[in-house]
Design brief:
With 238 residues, the protein is of the alpha+beta class. The chain contains five helices and ten strands.
């Protein structure tokens, strides 16, 4: 996938891949320290580039490409961003994130700054006008210029943790969500039985396993403890 964006691969040394792509009367030279194509929906790369006429490369950055694949013709369309632009796809791999942390480290925030940012975000949510909210965003940015990139990496790490947790949950286990889920019928549940068929995960009603649900966007990550394991096979329709 890197060749699609960056051109012909020239070399690889010390884990750094170098690419060459003609650009008008010159060419772009790109170095890639890590990259990953995730589920054909997003491509991530820790990269830096320069015009071949220039002596020095620019700074390392994390590029995020949202992909869309065409029909029989195989046409690919994409939207390119960097991690500091947001909002971006948050399915980046651990390897790419680790390389980004090494080459583009984000200095840790003090507890005082984190507390002030949290207070400002709460104030932003209650802002009455666009001008008020924009003024608060500028204050947050002044406290942490890297806030958007920092939040993106944190969201990617959280996504990886959730996927890992899902892998450890077995078919028939009981899970509890930290926040109850309210359904259109008016019923509220926080505990479900897991039904896994391949990569498909559904959640069964604990008392009526014939009722099954798919995890929605409003659901938080489930919490699983061995002590909550289902005592017996209660399989429902998948």
């Amino acid at each position: 996938m890197a060749e699609f964006f960056y051109g012909t691969k020239l070399s690889e040394q010390g884990g750094i891949q170098t690419y060459h792509k003609p650009w008008y009367d010159s060419a772009i030279i790109t170095e890639v320290a890590a990259c990953a194509l995730v589920e054909r929906r997003a491509f991530y790369a820790v990269m830096r580039w320069k015009n071949e006429k220039d002596a020095d490369f620019g700074e390392w950055q994390v590029a995020v490409y949202r992909l869309s694949w065409g029909g029989a013709g195989g046409t690919i369309t994409y939207k390119d961003q960097v991690e500091s632009m947001g909002p971006c796809e948050t399915t980046c791999t651990a390897h790419v994130l680790d390389v980004a942390d090494r080459l583009i480290p984000h200095p840790p925030l003090s507890d005082e700054v984190r507390a002030e940012i949290a207070r400002l975000r709460e104030e932003e949510r209650s802002g009455q006008t666009y001008a008020e909210r924009e003024a608060i965003r500028k204050r947050i940015h002044a406290l942490d210029p890297l806030q958007t990139a920092r939040q993106w990496r944190e969201a990617c790490r959280a996504h990886l943790a959730q996927r890992q947790q899902t892998r450890t949950i077995r078919h028939g286990d009981r899970v509890r969500f930290p926040q109850p889920v309210r359904f259109g019928s008016g019923e509220t549940l926080d505990t479900f039985i897991v039904s896994k068929q391949g990569n498909t995960v559904r959640f069964l009603h604990p008392d009526h396993p014939e009722r099954h649900y798919r995890k929605g966007a409003g659901w938080n990550a489930p919490v699983f403890k061995p002590g909550m394991q289902n005592p017996g096979p209660r399989r429902g329709r998948c």
